[in-house]
Amino acid sequence: MDFRRLLHPLPLVLIFVFAAVAITDLVQKLTEEPPPPPELVGSAIPRFEAVEPVIDFRPDHGDPAVEFLPIAVLSQGQWSTPRSSGVWARGPAAELEIDLASGGHRVLALEGMATSGDGPARAVQLDVNGVDCGRLALEPGWRRYRFDLPEGVARPGTNRLVFSFSGPGEARKKRRTFLVRRLGFFLENVDDVDILDAARPVSLDFDADRLTIRHSGTLEMPLVLEDRTDALQMRYRFSSAAGRIDVEVVQSQPGEPGSDDAVRSSVRADEKASGRIRLALHGRRGAYVLRIRTDLAAPDNRLLISSLRLVEEGDPTHRPLAANPSRN
User: Do residues 122 and 219 share a domain?
Assistant: First the structure.
């Protein structure tokens, strides 16, 4: 008996079986929920303080994923509640305090608007830490004003600023006098106070797994190191061959000197404008801080950081920093 005729359809059956399995697998993959995008940060909000800070008094202005420092503390009763247009100074004088990480700033730029109507304020005088820093005439509408600060007046730590307003009719105690939108400290003798329009100093793009830094300053992120944490690594790219980045991981609350030394790495853009930084973290456990200091050296330069990861021992895949449960 010839069995070849009976066996002939067998390959066709196998083809249909394999095709059905492949189609089922494809449908399953298409209907599965895609994995969540990697995250650059953990559950806490990172903090950034620019070397030349610009303080925006409008609430909810900027990237809510980042806390920007310094924060101005307004004297109670001398300022209105911040609103979408800024904050109003009330009466003939209003003061505030700002904690600067470093001193030496020589220029203070101010964006604001004086009141209109009967008896508006005609001039504003600025005192910083008890030192007279000049008097400027106020003009109608939104304007930007520049005060040249005496050397050494702006200092590290708390700085007290007092704005005094004068005009043909002295302001009553509760009268709105001057609306402040932005205030900035600068080290160089800036020629144009439009520098207040500079782009947001730091922005986070969770979907693209990217952090963009546009100003020189210090970014801090808290992180927790576990038993098997082997290293922290990140990719960086400067937009121009200028600047420097210093990266370190230090204990949140340092113990005995030398018990757990900080881990550091530095890169200069003129030597290597893009690449990878890896910090070995063998044996370190507990609460730490990732600190990234940037010196962009050029006003149009920016630093892009991506693939910021903690790597486990013996695991070829990368584990992202602790996921933020508030993000999908």
Answer: no
